[in-house]
């Protein structure tokens, strides 16, 4: 498609195309989760080593997201999207070919780059769809980027049980190839008059800081056995991020507009995303891990990987339902209050898990509450940020939010692992049951902080975005809404 405004028929195709691409990159990015055990068995590596098939994707996604967000804000957005999907397809090929384990990690890292496309899909929707439809589409994109893990988990687990780990990764290769063709056919070029310059030095410094943070979040043994090394690396990460922030404030073409991030609405939304994301991912990992714990531990249900994947079905279904309902509710309730309500729903899931988990039905209810809360939270979050963000900066602003989410998810996973490890006796393989209760209480505290942050946002309504910035984008909006 060219730079002209899309026709009505093209707009109808654009919405499902954007949602499909966002769903695919989310599913492929989470492929490592249900396949860790299969990878360890197939490649004869330890579970900790196999865990890197997930960690590598998360790391590359977090590093690529702000860079893609800046490129997506410029004139070469379509080319950026297609090139990124081509990288994901190439990574998928590496995961399928009969190559050594190191090439599987390279392929997974290449697939993880696609996680940075979600914000670009939002930028396309905001530029080329009428205002009401773009808001609903952006909310849906945000939701599917979260529930994608629940969609892909049971399917890939089943494929791994039937045809092995290569078959599961083959599914990822197939859907990303379809996503590439879909994007090539449907994604229009960005409006003219934008700068796509990338601060390469700043990108490298940010990549180093994010890599260290996410690496430390996923290395529980490093904190327990080599505390001094972990502290040194943590200090190095903070210093790198401080250097990056200083260079961004001086740069004429920053990866992230930090001055805009300091806006109370954006800063508050990112704080809520960080703390809330930690809690949400914490409950997801708690439920799936508890469900797979064998009866010999004195609790748990000993579910297979595939059946445990089915436990995520309520998460995906109710998350999607919440995502569809939120834009309608948004006309009656401010987005910050929706964030607070969503955090309360996730908090009730934690309460359910802490108080009642003796049968599988109770776990399904807790997972459903989590899905509904996450779906609503994800759908409401863009409304808070984009209310004070010029259209031309949509991709960049949402990219920063997704980096914050990635770090929050990693922190939630690491926090759960640390607490459960502390509750594991040296003579036992699995933690005591009360360790799960303790972890759930931590999650309740996290969601309480999230809700309070969102309420504070609601009490201080954000100012409108810069009228000059808005006016600059009005012609493109008028053209696209005809």
From TrEMBL:
<feature type="transmembrane region" description="Helical">
    <location>
        <begin position="299"/>
        <end position="323"/>
    </location>
</feature>
<feature type="transmembrane region" description="Helical">
    <location>
        <begin position="435"/>
        <end position="458"/>
    </location>
</feature>
<feature type="transmembrane region" description="Helical">
    <location>
        <begin position="167"/>
        <end position="184"/>
    </location>
</feature>
<feature type="transmembrane region" description="Helical">
    <location>
        <begin position="223"/>
        <end position="246"/>
    </location>
</feature>
<dbReference type="InterPro" id="IPR036259">
    <property type="entry name" value="MFS_trans_sf"/>
</dbReference>
<feature type="transmembrane region" description="Helical">
    <location>
        <begin position="109"/>
        <end position="125"/>
    </location>
</feature>
<feature type="transmembrane region" description="Helical">
    <location>
        <begin position="52"/>
        <end position="69"/>
    </location>
</feature>
<keyword id="KW-0046">Antibiotic resistance</keyword>
<feature type="domain" description="Major facilitator superfamily (MFS) profile">
    <location>
        <begin position="10"/>
        <end position="463"/>
    </location>
</feature>
<keyword id="KW-0813">Transport</keyword>
<feature type="transmembrane region" description="Helical">
    <location>
        <begin position="137"/>
        <end position="155"/>
    </location>
</feature>
<keyword id="KW-1133">Transmembrane helix</keyword>
<protein>
    <submittedName>
        <fullName>MFS transporter</fullName>
    </submittedName>
</protein>
<keyword id="KW-0812">Transmembrane</keyword>
<dbReference type="InterPro" id="IPR020846">
    <property type="entry name" value="MFS_dom"/>
</dbReference>
<keyword id="KW-0472">Membrane</keyword>
<feature type="transmembrane region" description="Helical">
    <location>
        <begin position="12"/>
        <end position="32"/>
    </location>
</feature>
<feature type="transmembrane region" description="Helical">
    <location>
        <begin position="267"/>
        <end position="287"/>
    </location>
</feature>
<feature type="transmembrane region" description="Helical">
    <location>
        <begin position="400"/>
        <end position="423"/>
    </location>
</feature>
<feature type="transmembrane region" description="Helical">
    <location>
        <begin position="196"/>
        <end position="217"/>
    </location>
</feature>
<feature type="transmembrane region" description="Helical">
    <location>
        <begin position="363"/>
        <end position="388"/>
    </location>
</feature>
<feature type="transmembrane region" description="Helical">
    <location>
        <begin position="81"/>
        <end position="103"/>
    </location>
</feature>
<dbReference type="Pfam" id="PF07690">
    <property type="entry name" value="MFS_1"/>
</dbReference>
<dbReference type="InterPro" id="IPR011701">
    <property type="entry name" value="MFS"/>
</dbReference>
<feature type="transmembrane region" description="Helical">
    <location>
        <begin position="335"/>
        <end position="357"/>
    </location>
</feature>
